[in-house]
């Protein structure tokens, strides 16, 4: 199937492929929403999300302020509420196990072991309508298989849908299904995700799922390409979004990210929304398909090391607006820059000012191999949330028909 043919106006199905799932995650064909909407549906894609209990405990031990105890679990969301309230649903990368286990099997072997409170964390996520959680990342297995199992149990009990990790490789690779009706027209989305393959996470940490072993969904280039190719073959008219966790902390993209992103597009993905660097990375148009290399952080309660690195301390919150008009769907993606340096914000991320946005926008253009061409394909603007970059992620609208 050619790239052009993938965007015929007769598309019947919209699939968001964030390569992830859990033992209790939604299976393809399940309905996670099914609600009726008028005019538009808004889906928010958020990057790395973690409440940072392990970091805050260390700060308290050093006579500092544990912001979770003094300000609560809702504190980090306050500046992001305008966008959260606009979204009908939110898909986020939950970069922590949710577990009460007293010790990690990786203690002394892996740095930065995450865990989150089994009561407060899911309550805060649910309160802010963050109910679709990718677990395909480098912290989900910080407390081993028992920690993964408890995470999946706790999140399911609190009404969350998980993807990108599960009881086996097959579980981890299954997409999440979302269904909506816009002006009476059905819209079905499949969401999936994967963590880039890193040998140390395989051999030393045992993070990745296997045929009969629980873990996160591994994305080497061959495996990721095969998963997307299979999904495209099963859903020839679908819109597929890949949601990889990858890259180096606080850095621009790597050559490995570029190779994997291009393989995802070449295998059938229509949009790539990555995360993992704790800050934004490049935006690229490849074969007429958009790649957002990193959304960065959403709410992530670690002090951060932005001052040690030469790069913008900003992330991106991506709001997809799906509009139906005269029987056709159209998708626009608005990228809102978020100040992510907790040492500056007091653990309360906020949207960029116009001055910050202008400098950041120029940095994104400067990182592009063809800034002139990139500039002609993106729009900028500002609304009551803040300044944004807007991308048209459907080159032509597709007809809304019964799925």
Question: What characteristics describe this protein?
Answer:
403 residues; four-stranded mixed sheet; Purple Acid Phosphatase, chain A, domain 2
Describe it.
This protein has 403 residues and is an alpha/beta fold. It has one domain: Purple Acid Phosphatase, chain A, domain 2. The protein has 12 helices and 23 strands. Strands 2, 3, 4, 5, 17, 18, 19, 20, 21, 22 and 23 form an 11-stranded mixed beta sheet that branches. It has a 4-stranded mixed beta sheet with strand order 12-14-16-15, covered by helices on one side. A 3-stranded mixed beta sheet has the order 1-7-8, with no helix packed on it. Helix 8 runs parallel beside helix 9 and helix 11 crosses helix 12. It is globular, with a radius of gyration of 20 Å. Keywords: Ligase. It holds the Pfam family PGA_cap. InterPro entries: Aspartic_peptidase_AS, Capsule_synth_CapA, CW_Biosynth-Accessory, Metallo-depent_PP-like. Belongs to the CapA family.
- Using DSSP, what is the number of strands? 23
Broad structural category? alpha/beta
Summed up, the domain count is 1
Number of helices: 12
Alpha-carbon distance between the two ends: 21 Å
CATH superfamily: Metallo-dependent phosphatases
Largest sheet: 11 strands, mixed
CATH class reads Alpha Beta
Beta-strand portion reads: 25-35%
Please name the CATH architecture.
4-Layer Sandwich
Which topology does CATH recognise? Answer: Purple Acid Phosphatase, chain A, domain 2
- Gyration radius, in Å: 20 Å
Name the overall outline: globular
Quaternary structure classification: single chain
Low-pLDDT residue intervals, each spanning 5 or more residues = 1-12, 17-32
The helix content, as a percent range, equals 25-40%
Mean pLDDT: 89
């Amino acid at each position: 199937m050619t790239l052009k043919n993938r965007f015929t106006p007769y598309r019947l199905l919209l699939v968001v492929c964030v390569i992830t799932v859990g033992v209790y995650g939604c299976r393809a064909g399940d309905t996670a929403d099914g609600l009726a909407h008028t005019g538009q549906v808004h889906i928010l894609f958020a990057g790395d999300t973690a409440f940072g209990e392990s970091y805050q405990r260390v700060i308290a031990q050093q006579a500092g302020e544990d912001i979770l105890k003094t300000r609560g679990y809702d504190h980090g969301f306050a500046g992001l509420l305008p966008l959260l309230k606009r979204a009908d649903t939110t898909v986020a990368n939950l970069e922590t196990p949710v577990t009460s286990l007293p010790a990690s099997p990786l203690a002394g072997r892996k740095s930065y072991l995450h865990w989150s409170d089994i009561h407060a964390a899911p309550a805060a996520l649910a309160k802010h309508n963050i109910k679709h959680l990718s677990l395909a990342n480098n912290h989900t297995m910080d407390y081993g298989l028992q920690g993964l199992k408890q995470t999946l149990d706790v999140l399911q009990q609190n009404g969350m849908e998980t993807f990108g990790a599960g009881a086996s490789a097959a579980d981890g690779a299954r997409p999440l299904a979302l269904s909506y009706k816009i002006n009476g027209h059905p819209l079905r989305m499949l969401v999936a995700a994967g963590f880039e393959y890193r040998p140390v996470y395989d051999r030393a940490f045992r993070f990745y799922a296997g045929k009969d072993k629980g873990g996160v969904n591994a994305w080497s280039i061959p495996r990721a390409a095969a998963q997307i190719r299979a999904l495209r073959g099963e859903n020839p008219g679908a819109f597929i979004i890949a949601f990889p966790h990858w890259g180096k902390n606080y850095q621009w993209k790597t050559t490995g990210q570029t190779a994997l992103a291009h393989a995802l597009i070449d295998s059938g993905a229509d949009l790539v929304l990555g995360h993992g660097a704790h800050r934004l990375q490049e935006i690229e148009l490849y074969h007429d398909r958009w790649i957002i290399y990193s959304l960065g952080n959403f709410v992530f309660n670690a002090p951060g090391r932005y001052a040690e690195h030469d790069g913008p301390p900003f992330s991106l919150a991506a709001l997809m607006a799906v509009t139906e008009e005269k029987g056709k769907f159209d998708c626009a993606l608005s990228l809102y820059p978020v100040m992510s340096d907790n040492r500056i914000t007091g653990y309360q991320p906020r949207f960029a000012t116009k001055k910050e946005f202008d400098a950041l926008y120029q940095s994104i253009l400067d990182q592009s191999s063809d800034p002139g061409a990139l500039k002609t394909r993106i729009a900028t603007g500002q609304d009551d949330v803040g300044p944004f970059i807007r991308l048209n992620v459907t080159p032509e609208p597709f007809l809304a028909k019964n799925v």
